[in-house]
Amino acid sequence: MHSLDPIFKPKSIAIIGASREPYAIGYTVVKNLLTTRYEGKIYPINPNADEILNLKCYHSILDVPDPVDLAVVTVPAKITPAVVEEAGKKGVVGVAIIASGFSEVGEVDLENKIVEIAKKYKMRILGPNIVGLMNNPLKMNASFAPYLPYPGKIAMLSQSGALLIALDSRTWLDRVGMSHLISIGNMADLDFATLIEYFSIDDQTNCISLYVEGIKNGKNFIEASKKVLDKPIVALKSGVSKRGAMAAASHTGSLAGSSKIYDAAFKQAGVIKATDLNDLFDKSLALANQPPMRGDNLLIITNGGGIGVLATDSAEKNDLQIKDPPDDLKEKIKNIIPNFGSTKNPIDVTGMANDDWYKNTLAAALEHPWVDGVVVLYCEVAVLDPKDLAAALHEVIACSRTTKPITIAFVGGELTMRASEWLQKKGIPVYQSPDRAIKAMAALRDFGKIRETGFDIFEPYTDIDKNKVKDILTDINKRKSRYVTEIEAKQIFEAYKIPTAKSKLAKTEDEAVKLAKEIGYPVVMKIVSPQIIHKSDVGGVKINIRTDDDVRKAYNQILNNVSKIDPKPEILGILVQEMAPSGTECIIGSTQDPQFGATVMFGLGGVFVEVLKDVSFRIAPFSKNTAKQLIDEIEAKAILHGTRGEKPKDIETLAETISRFSQLVEDFPELKEVDANPTILYEKGLKVVDARIIL
Ligand code: ADP
Ligand code: MG
């Protein structure tokens, strides 16, 4: 038995704040439990009532003669601590707190108080600020939502209560079946990570589906999700726009991080991303009912060219490849369909197709080892009744011994809808457009890939010098201004074996000449000042300096340029630096995210970053393999892999550098922002020429 079973599969429930007033939440919860015929014991608690809905009512939970697994608390926020305390004394395993009026409206202390009380009694809290929880196999509707969801295998967790009620109704309309529907509200205690872990071993659940506004402890979320390899997790994150994030923050009391960070976290956690509510339902339906797609060979079968092309377009957008099937399969299908059909992918069984043609084509596809998944498309036509087609498809699928995923799109009117419903009841996902069927298949492929590749295993580099970084940071912390000079930033990089351009600080013109000679011409010279962040913007950088004379000139020019800045910046000296040969300029950067900790960003330099924002993210730390994915996620990746006669760049070294960088920023969270911009990449090797660290 799992320690959370008494909460999600309780044998007895007390409703603290049970009411005799119809429409009161304390009344509705009791009524719902009775209506759904929950088989466990129900104990209404109300100090002023002896009977509610024909059930004996207790004045205090302490009066209940038997043990209580779960207490649903429906009293107002202010009274909540007192009743949580009583529940604790009673030995209740978990409290589901429905009331709002906690951290989501700034009442953080009140929320902390109930958490403390619960801890004292080793009791767990669901909520506060929730609708309640539902367990379909147990027929338990411990919520104020009107009914249990359509039965099925999805455990859906929602951070929004109102949305959960709406989705509950939608499950019946779309026939998307749920095992559990759980409102998790403010997540004062039980959070996504804990529930993901719990539902990953629930045998009534095949798919974990999340509506996320904000995750509180990002690292826990990633770790919990990574442990779940055999059950898909799909998530819709709201608050991806700046304004949306503001609304979400005030809504749940948890900060909503930037959408790129969440995308990265989901990827690293093996969580499949949904783009909107329909997509969340569509993908959950497929993931709960179909096996993962275990290879890249998708076959599309259609009776219409139009929907076939739409499906092909959508496949490309969703990273599914559409290749022609092997000759023997083509040959087989050629004998099934008329000669004006097509045996290329999509297979066009033609508008003349009857149920037999569809049936035989699908059977041939499922049997053939080349095929990893099938999307069947149907346009409503007079020659083929969708009901007959549905029966035929079901027959093939039921008889097939293979475990290949299938999604279906039926496009048409009422007859089509009814046929779709019939198929859906048999556990076969049917959608109303080719695009949705393809996206559902893409989710099954994503799940297949997650299972094939597993998760990133980061082996920390051991040839690094952590103490060196500590010493540098200690020195900096002793100073009044905690400005990190470019030299120090580069020393920190070098300690993690990130190659940088050799740099030395000159305080006089003569010293600059001496250092330039030591370093060797050509050199670069740069201003060093705590107040100047963008050096070249103020004429603080001179490159390609080739003689002693030019060093002197550059020295004075730079000082002259920055002397015009108002107020006058403090000048620590002028950096003399090895001039790196030209190459491909990249940016490797990092910021600390409040939810996920250190993050790493990669992109190409210049316009690619500033104008096109062509960058990708990961949560630190991660391996060289993941760094390669990060590199390949930018749109302009062709530039790195070699294009138009250019030789490919040293991706291996770049990936290793990024992985080392991810270790550095993970090891030292006090590095609030770090930029290696530019990092110049060559056919062999790379060099960081500008390094900036903000503590
Ligand atoms: P900032 O970003 O503060 O303006 P940088 O140190 O990045 O200053 O210098 C501006 C540009 O000068 C860089 O983007 C790069 O193109 C070039 N540059 C800087 N340092 C070097 C170097 N050591 N070798 C070659 N080019 C350099
Ligand atoms: Mg720079």
Task: Label this structure with key terms.
29 strands; binds adenosine-5'-diphosphate; 7-stranded mixed beta sheet; 24 helices; 695 residues; 21% strand; 39% helix; alpha/beta; binds magnesium ion; 6-stranded antiparallel beta sheet
* Strand percentage: 15-25%
Averaging pLDDT over every residue, what do you get? 94
- What topology, given as strand order, has the largest sheet? 9-8-11-10-12-13-14
Number of helices: 24
**Number of extended strands:** 29
Structural class designation: alpha/beta
The shape is: flat
Name the bound molecules.
adenosine-5'-diphosphate, magnesium ion
- Percent of residues in helices: 25-40%
| Termini gap | 47 Å
- Segments where pLDDT lies below 50 for 5+ residues? 250-256
Question: How would you characterize the largest beta sheet?
Answer: 7 strands, mixed
Radius of gyration: 31 Å
Describe the structure.
This protein has a 7-stranded mixed sheet with strand order 9-8-11-10-12-13-14, sandwiched between helices. Strands 24, 25, 26, 27, 28 and 29 form a 6-stranded antiparallel sheet that branches. A 5-stranded parallel sheet has the order 2-1-5-6-7, sandwiched between helices. It has 24 helices and 29 strands. Helix 3 packs parallel to helix 4, helix 6 runs parallel beside helix 7 and helix 11 packs parallel to helix 16. Helices cover 39% and strands 21% of the residues. It is of the alpha/beta class and 695 residues long. About 1% of the residues have low confidence. Strand 5, helix 3 and strand 6 form a beta-alpha-beta unit. The longest helix has 20 residues. Magnesium ion binds next to strand 27.
